[in-house]
Amino acid sequence: MPIWTLHGNGRTVAPGEVVHPGERLNWPATIAIGAQHVVAMFGATFLVPILTGFPVSTTLLFSGIGTILFLLITRNKLPSYLGSSFAFIIPVTAATASHSMGTALAGIVAVGILLLLVGVVVQVAGIGWVDKFMPPVVAGTIVALIGFNLAPAAWDNVQKQPLTAGITLAAIILFSVLFRGFLGRISIFLGVVVGYIVATFQGEIDWSKVADEQWFGWPTFHIADFTTPGTWGAIAMFLPVVLVLIAENVGHVRAVATMTDKSVNKQTGKALIADGVATTIAGAFGGSGTTTYGENIGVMAATRVYSTAAYWVAGIVAIVLALSPKVGVIFNSIPQGVLGGATTALYGLIGIIGIKIWVDNRVDFSRPVNQYTGAVALVIAIANFTMNWGDFVLSGIVLGTVAALLIYHVGNALARARRTGADDGGPIPAVGPLGGDPVDAL
Questions:
Q1: Residue 386, in any domain of the structure
Q2: Category of 434 on φ-ψ map: left (φ > 0), alpha (ψ -120 to 50) or beta
């Protein structure tokens, strides 16, 4: 692996320059930026285990370990922090409720192995086939339906403590519009802090377990269970998550390549392999599935520091925090009202990210195939259509994903065969000025 070279004077980044993955600032600055990455990912990463009932410390431990594995597998050429993926929330919640945590972990392991295999194929054959299999209209639909499918879970928490939930949500929105840069990007984390303080004054937090826990100790481990009856049926709910992780990892690589060097795109296959390995290991021993994090892309964009050295620091800091049971109990004490307010924003943002994929890629919704790809899949997910064959259950996320893929690919094939013009004809040309209000013709 390349050894980091010192960028400039090691203290500052000149205008128009960036600190590349193989470079670093001086170690005090690098450590400070690494710690900042931990703060950036913390708000989202700790919410996933809280919402799914997983141990926070265990998830944080495998998040740090996964980040270090990612850096090793990509040979220090791709900066990334691997935090908890929200795409796992619904299948994990469903599998835990109907079977056990071991079954949910088996699903996470299955996703990790499949993602690893996809990464091997991408490394050998290139990324082009992924773009064809999951074009923007399909990718955006799948991401959006996962977020909107979660809406009832947010509402359930809001109803438990509506005042706390409302204050938390209001704080998140206010922080996002009042602050620029890094503080604006961690608005969810700051909103949760405000909600936690409000809940404390209202007596909604149980502190009894916090005092009993030690400051240092090993987190709780659980083992994936592939033997319980119905486990393999439950695993089917997890498979669409692979598509989301592919989209997130590919997007991460492209974002870093745009800001640093186009050669970074060559790491796409390794990035998928690395995330697959990290997710598999986390699922095998009780952690949440992992993914690359947009929050950390934001930190890199703000600081212009893309050094992988900072991510080694972040991974180590996360592991150290995970070895404090007291920290885990504090996060587990977050009341339902705070979670309800935060997830109302988070789940909605997941849906909006999917819609942003449509907008950024100028998906043409005048074409019937694109219309029905999004329309049918979203309704299936929002209403949470289900199909049951004994212990084998397909949820709204699975059915919505399958519907999106079938409608797009089969619909295009039929439209082209019949030459009806109803197929996806590709991107449409730009109309009017981009990035501003349309100008009326004189």
A1: no
A2: beta
DSSP letters along 238-249, please? GTHHHHHHHHHH
Angle (deg, nearest 10), helices 268-285 and 101-125: 160
3-class DSSP assignment, residue 29? helix
pLDDT of residue 436: 39
Chain mean pLDDT for the chain: 80
Distance CA 232, CA 58 (A): 24
User: Could you tell me if residue 191 is inside a domain?
Assistant: yes
434 pLDDT tier (thresholds 50, 70, 90): very low
The SS3 of residue 1 is coil
| Burial (CB count within 10 angstroms: exposed 0-12, middle 13-18, buried 19+), residue 438 | exposed
Residue 339 belongs to some domain of the structure? yes
Considering only CA atoms, which of 81, 148, 129 is closest in space to residue 353? 148
| Residues 6+ positions from 207 with CB-CB distance below 8 Å | 333
Q: What is the pTM of this model?
A: 0.71
Show the domain range for 41. 5-11+19-354
Q: Kindly state the average pLDDT of the residues 262-267.
A: 79
Is residue 380 one of the residues assigned to a domain? Answer: no
Compute the distance between CA of residue 394 and CA of residue 236 in angstroms, rounded to an integer: 7
Q: What is the pLDDT of residues 87-145, one digit of tens each?
A: 787 788 878 877 788 888 988 999 999 999 999 998 888 877 777 887 888 878 887 88
What's the domain count of the chain?
A: 1
